[in-house]
Amino acid sequence: MALDLNSGVDLVDQDSNYMNELVNLTTKFNPEMTIGDLLNAYHQWAFGQLEENINKLNIPNDGDIIVLGIYLGHTFNIIKNIFPNRNVIGIDASDYGNPIENVIYQDVRTLFANNNFDRPVAVLFDGIGSWHFCQQSKSAAFEFASNNIISNGYYIDESGWRDGVSYSGIETFKENLDPFEVVTDTSPLYILQHK
């Protein structure tokens, strides 16, 4: 199914396997790039940026590490390696035919509804996508983060900063970032810390 990026409908509601379609769209813009090339480039970016930027943070010793938007597991596996002695939980709406251990396959809007998944969280890494294309899912994730991330814990949005401009889109949809404050606007990640 073709994704409509201008519809205002969350991508997961258009196609539960929407990441496959996004990857295919990206390779159409650059015919010399294969899907493997694209995923490898992303993996290299994620490996360098995640470890470097997360290691700069003073992560609380308590609480789970939650990773949203697993897709094929690249980011999830990197974060598990960064936190080998922590409870790292992945969440994605689809397993894309390749289920991964310690990943819950459920839409975050359903999983987080009615506080069914509440727990202390040290870091929530939100890789769901842009607020522009996944507003309902991102809102559910942000509300969960607001209620569950412990003091001095972090909400990290994969769609971060480039040349001082936020690519997250969070400011467009959230008037107020309470209970968080922006940690840095120089990282390629959008990092908020719970007050």
Could you characterize the architecture of this molecule?
It contains seven helices and nine strands. The strands form two sheets. It has a seven-stranded mixed beta sheet with strand order 3-2-1-4-5-9-8, sandwiched between helices. A two-stranded antiparallel ribbon has the order 6-7. It has a single domain, classed as 3-Layer(aba) Sandwich (Rossmann fold). The model has no long low-confidence stretch (mean pLDDT 83). The protein has helices at 11-14, 18-29, 35-54, 74-82, 108-111, 135-148, 170-173, and strands spanning 64-68, 88-92, 103-105, 121-126, 149-157, 161-162, 165-166, 180-184, 190-194. By secondary structure, it is of the alpha/beta class.
How would the blueprint of this fold be written?
Layout (H helix, E strand, L loop, with lengths): L10 H4 L3 H12 L5 H20 L9 E5 L5 H9 L5 E5 L10 E3 L2 H4 L9 E6 L8 H14 E9 L3 E2 L2 E2 L3 H4 L6 E5 L5 E5 L1
Parallel strand pairs: 1-2, 1-4, 2-3, 4-5
Antiparallel strand pairs: 5-9, 6-7, 8-9
Helix pairs in contact: 3-4
